[in-house]
Specification:
Radius of gyration: 18 Å
Protein name: 4-hydroxyphenylacetate isomerase
CATH topology: Fumarylacetoacetate hydrolase, domain 2
Helix content: 10-25%
Oligomer: single chain
Distance between the termini: 28 Å
GO molecular function, one term: metal ion binding
CATH superfamily: Fumarylacetoacetase-like, C-terminal domain
Pfam family, one: FAA_hydrolase
Low-confidence stretches: none
Keywords: Isomerase, Metal-binding
Number of domains: 1
C-alpha cells in the first residue's frame, strides 16, 4: 500500500489516501472504497508541460523528415508545449470530441509532479524534486505537423485527463522502467515502456531546469509513445502505467456535453 493524493469534485483541498490497489481501490478517511465510486477532479494544480519526440520510436517514425528544413537535424534539447488549465479533466469524466472530428489520438503519458521549486537541477538529484507520479492522457486531434505549434489540435477543453491520483514517488521507485498500455473498449491497443525514453525522467528535469524553473505542483509529461491509438465517440479508454495506476474516460460528442451531458 502506498500514499497518494486525490482531489474530490467540489473541494478545493486535496485528500490524502492510501492506495490499496493501483487498479482502483483506496482507503479514504479510514474507509475502503473503489475509485470508480468517487467523483474526481484532476489531482494537479500547476502548469502541465508536454514533451514531444522523447520516445525512441516516435523520433524514428519521422525518418528522414527530421533532417529536412526548418531544423535539419534531430532535436538537441527537449521540445516542450503546454496543456493549459482548460484542458484538465478528471478520472471518469467524458472527453469531448469536437463536431466534424471522427477520431482522437489517445496520448498515454507518465506525469511527473514536481514537489518543490526546481532550478538548475543536477541529474543525480533530480528525483529529489519529484513529489509523485500520475497517469495522463494527452489527447489531441490527429495531425501531421511536428515543428509548428498544434494549438487547436492539443488544447481543446477536456483534452488532458489526469489521475486518478498522484502517487508518492517512493511507491514507484525507478520511473524509467514502467510499462505503459492503452485499452480501448477493453482491447489492448498500445503497449510501450518508459525504458524507451530518449531522455530519462532525471535527464529531462535537469535539461529543462537549465533554462526555466519548475514550480511545486507543475506536471511534466515525459512523452507519448509512437503510434498513439485512435478512439471515437462512445469508446471507453483506459491508460495504465505500472505501479502508478489506471485512468479511465469515455469519448463523448462535444454537443452532447454542451446540452447537459453528465459523468460517464
Amino acid at each position: 500500500m502506498s500514499k497518494a493524493k486525490i482531489k474530490l469534485q467540489g473541494l478545493l483541498q486535496e485528500e490524502e489516501v492510501i492506495v490499496e490497489d493501483v487498479h482502483g481501490a483506496v482507503s479514504l478517511r479510514g474507509k475502503s472504497c473503489k475509485i470508480d465510486n468517487l467523483r474526481l477532479d484532476a489531482p494537479v494544480s500547476g502548469t502541465v508541460y508536454g514533451t514531444l519526440l522523447n520516445y525512441e520510436g516516435a523520433l524514428e517514425k519521422l525518418g528522414d523528415a527530421v533532417n529536412e528544413p526548418p531544423y535539419k537535424e534531430a532535436p538537441k534539447a527537449p521540445v516542450l508545449y503546454i496543456k493549459p488549465v482548460n484542458t484538465l479533466n478528471g478520472y471518469g469524466m467524458p472527453i469531448p470530441i469536437p463536431s466534424g472530428v471522427p477520431e482522437l489520438e489517445m496520448g498515454a503519458a507518465l506525469g511527473v509532479v514536481i514537489g518543490c521549486t526546481a532550478t538548475n537541477v543536477r541529474v543525480e538529484e533530480a528525483l529529489e524534486y519529484v513529489e509523485g507520479y500520475t497517469v495522463v492522457n494527452d489527447v489531441s486531434i490527429p495531425h501531421e505537423s511536428v515543428y509548428r505549434p498544434v494549438i487547436s489540435q492539443k488544447v481543446r477543453d477536456g483534452f488532458c485527463p489526469v489521475g486518478p491520483w498522484v502517487i508518492d514517488r517512493d511507491a514507484v521507485g525507478n520511473p524509467n522502467s514502467l510499462g505503459v498500455r492503452v485499452y480501448i473498449n477493453g482491447e489492448l491497443r498500445q503497449e510501450n515502456t518508459t525504458a524507451n525514453l530518449i531522455r530519462s525522467v532525471e535527464q529531462l528535469i535537469a535539461e529543462i531546469t537549465e533554462f526555466m524553473t519548475l514550480q511545486k505542483g507543475d506536471t511534466l509529461l515525459v512523452g507519448v509513445p509512437e503510434n498513439a491509438p485512435l478512439a471515437c465517440a462512445g469508446d471507453k479508454v483506459r491508460v495504465e502505467i505500472d505501479r502508478v495506476g489506471k485512468l479511465e474516460n469515455t469519448i463523448v460528442h462535444e454537443e452532447e456535453l454542451a446540452a447537459g451531458g453528465t459523468r460517464i
